[in-house]
Design goal:
Layout: H1 13-16, E1 24-25, H2 31-42, E2 53-59, H3 63-70, H4 75-81, E3 86-93, H5 106-123, E4 127-131, H6 136-143, E5 149-160
Antiparallel strand pairs: 1-5, 2-3, 3-5, 4-5
The protein binds flavin mononucleotide.
């Protein structure tokens, strides 16, 4: 099942084809695929090369643990994430290793790592559905996340089901002209035409 975005300009296939399914084939992931997803995340850029990302990965084969990890999602997300191959909790290190001060770019950098992971997953026929609808304290307790780290999001990773339940919602984005400005805020950049 693919849900290719109706892009207005050419982009890499793995960008156009990335989407967030709510229906998965209930099967496991290869170790090699998992390694490559996190290798992609590893090579994300980050402020001062701090690499503030940390990931906790729970695979569906870990029956009881997978069930407890699902319990760290809000009900609406738990309902569809149960068939995913793995749940990943994306966690940020909040302070700079170099001087202990708050890393104000930690969440930004964690997001970049997840973006690269998602694109790598797409290129491998996998899908990643990120979730803000989580119970961070439950997840932190379950996984033993120490002080100084924040559980920011979860992601379901798996093989999109051939026929998604209820069909896939249409992909949409606001036009570039509403997001990309020239020197003056609100005025579309000239290269957009
Ligand atoms: C940080 C973040 C939090 C999200 N939280 C949820 C969520 O809790 N539940 C959900 O179903 N989708 C969630 N999503 C998925 C978005 O709704 C989805 O990416 C968006 O609608 C665009 O669809 P697409 O990813 O298929 O292009 C989240 C995505 C991101 C990046």
């Amino acid at each position: 099942m693919t849900m290719t975005a109706p892009v207005g300009h050419p982009v890499l296939a793995a960008i156009a084809e990335r989407w967030s399914p709510k229906s998965y084939e209930p099967r496991g992931l290869d170790d090699a695929d998992l390694c490559s997803l996190f290798e992609a995340a590893r090579w994300a850029p980050s402020s001062f090369n701090e690499q503030p990302w940390r990931f906790v990965v729970v695979r569906r084969e870990q029956d009881a643990t997978f069930g407890r990890a699902l319990a760290g999602l809000v009900d609406a997300n738990r309902a569809w994430a149960r068939d995913a191959s793995a749940l990943v909790f994306a966690i940020a290190s909040l302070n700079l290793a170099r001087n202990g001060r708050p890393n104000t770019k930690a969440l930004y950098d964690l997001g970049q790592a997840m973006a690269l992971l998602s694109v790598e997953a797409t290129a491998r026929g996998l899908a990643v559905h990120q979730m803000g609808g989580i119970l961070p304290d439950s997840i932190a307790e379950l996984c033993g996340v120490p002080e100084g780290f924040q559980v920011v999001t979860a992601a379901a990773i798996g093989y999109p089901a051939t026929e998604p339940e209820g069909g896939g919602a249409a992909r949409s984005r606001r036009p570039l002209r509403e997001s990309v400005f020239g020197a003056t805020w609100g005025r579309p950049a000239e290269f957009l035409g």
